[in-house]
Amino acid sequence: MELKPGLSALVTGGAAGIGKALSLALAEKGVFVTIVDFSEEKGKEAVSLVQKENSRFHENLEFPSAIFVKCNVTNPRDVTSLFEKHVATYGGLDICINSAGISNPVPFHKDKTDGTKTWRHTININLVALIDCTRHAIRTMKTLKKSGVIINLGSFAGLIPSDLIPIYSSSKGGVVMFTRSLAGYKRQGIRANVLCPDVVRTEMGEKLDPKSVSLMGGFVPMEMVVKGAFELITDESKAGACLWVSNHKGLEYWPNPTEESKYTASYSSRSNKISFQAPLSSQLPQNFKKLVVHSFSHHFRDATHVISAPLRLPLESDQVVLKVIYAGVNAGDVNYSAGRYFQGNKKDISSLLPADAGFEAVGIVAAVGDSVRNLKVGTPAAIMGFGCYAEFMKVSSKHILPIPRPDPEVVALLTSGLTASIALEKVGQMKSGQVVLVTAAAGGTGQFAVQLAKLEGNKVVATCGGKEKATLLKELGVDRVIDYKTEDVKTALKEFPKGVDIVYECVGGNMFDLCLNALAIRGRLVVIGMISQYQGKNGWMPLNYPGLVEKLLAKSQTVAGFVMTHYSYLCKEHLIRLSQLYSSGKLKIVLDPKRFSGLDSVADAVEYLHSGKSSGKVSTSS
């Protein structure tokens, strides 16, 4: 999310300490702020400072650029009213920072009370209230159908146990695990992250033993805390992330790969033994589930079922076991289940059954063979190949692509992103200053095609079906959106009398005809699919195109097909490029908000994709 004037933020504990510093830093960007605190005096003082900062961006407003709301965050009614007041004032909620927190006033083992005003109160404010505020923030963002970011304040004490402050440490540890468990909301446009600074010079921090602070490298500068928070807000790839802020290592995401690898199984093919550095629950199972095609049919559900298969060991020396976390859903899944991708095989294709289904996945390397040197247990990795609808995959290490994190966004970059990148560059020969038409542009691959065309400096035209999809495409920078549900595509394309230079086409049928007729002199039409024809009971029935040769010859036009497997040698190069664009914020990844979990949901996901209701990349989680 780009921090810019006009956004609104709600900050609990915003009248002092880190909350106040973040409120002022947001105001310096022109963000409207609701400061939430129990201290009315400090709250009004903070609001005055925030409004002063905001005055550089906003003049003659009909509403205040900052407001104070006195709130007991442990009171559910107060919290409900708080969020209602913020939305009523600013019309939305872009950022929620839950910074309210206290230390435990009495060592809990010396506490002779029932803890209502001491250790129970600490947990209620630091953890229970934070959960409640997070819940309200998510509900608000979902109700308004707007993306948003939630930053929860944890602490170093939530990462490393401290016998000096066990209550505070346990409450912040809960904040860390709670927030990391919210990563899945990213698929609905909501990103929750947790910020864990070492000791900061605040009223709470000043109470700590100076020797302990010194051993930790001194107080962490508030500027570093603000920098960490802003990184979590602006980096679209961060969801469920935990950022540790310290003088020793600066900004470090936790757990790091070394720590993460402690919770996976390692395997040695030489000794034929599995060693475990983790609880029993993380051991490699003897059997795993996978989805297979048992009979050929364009009805994916009828053609497939889930089976249990043995995870056969030992591994060959160059093999790895990948634990699948997310698998991508593709339009071509129905072609695979119908046997269309086996037609060139000289064998009777029925002899190839059962066939493992699924084309792409991301996960964690769970075991490696003896000769594997570039991968280790715990490495996040991606793969493209048959058999990705499974809990585990045993594959050659050469097919594994290491990735920073096993997120669903990476799944989107695989078949969908790579198809757009390679097809436009190599087949479409795309350069700047052209008119590029993308069909089904709000889908898994279309979203990348329109963005890559814009990044190259082109005018982009896109077709879609529905108001929400049209809005999404406008947000992605499309110059002319054609919603075929509200306007005639043929008529709309007449707005380009010289025609379009490149067509990225995946619908087929009548849409293909319209695109071909709209192609400019020396234009190139790249066929990456024909989804409108995939589920016909007669399969890929050849269509007649009388006069096609004459038409292409008259305008020196090109119609070319694209299948990823024929360009697999370019995948690594283009994946690195796409990842860099995404990490830098130049490329957005849209994930369909509908969630599918477990192998039993794959058929539902495939049918949903073909229903025309999906927007962005559809995937399933294990």
Brief characterization of the structure:
The chain has 622 residues and is an alpha/beta fold. Helix content is 32%, strand content 22%. The chain has an eight-stranded mixed β-sheet, with helices on both faces.
Name the descriptors.
622 residues; alpha/beta; Rossmann fold; Quinone Oxidoreductase, Chain A, domain 1; eight-stranded mixed sheet; six-stranded antiparallel sheet; globular
- Main beta sheet strand tally, sense and closure: 8 strands, mixed
Which architecture of the largest domain does the CATH hierarchy give at level 2?
3-Layer(aba) Sandwich
The first-level CATH class of the largest domain is given as Alpha Beta
Total DSSP helices: 18
First-to-last CA distance: 28 Å
Global morphology: globular
What strand line-up does the widest sheet have? 3-2-1-4-5-6-7-8
Give the name of the CATH superfamily of the largest domain.
NAD(P)-binding Rossmann-like Domain
Structural class: alpha/beta
CATH topology of the largest domain: the name is: Rossmann fold
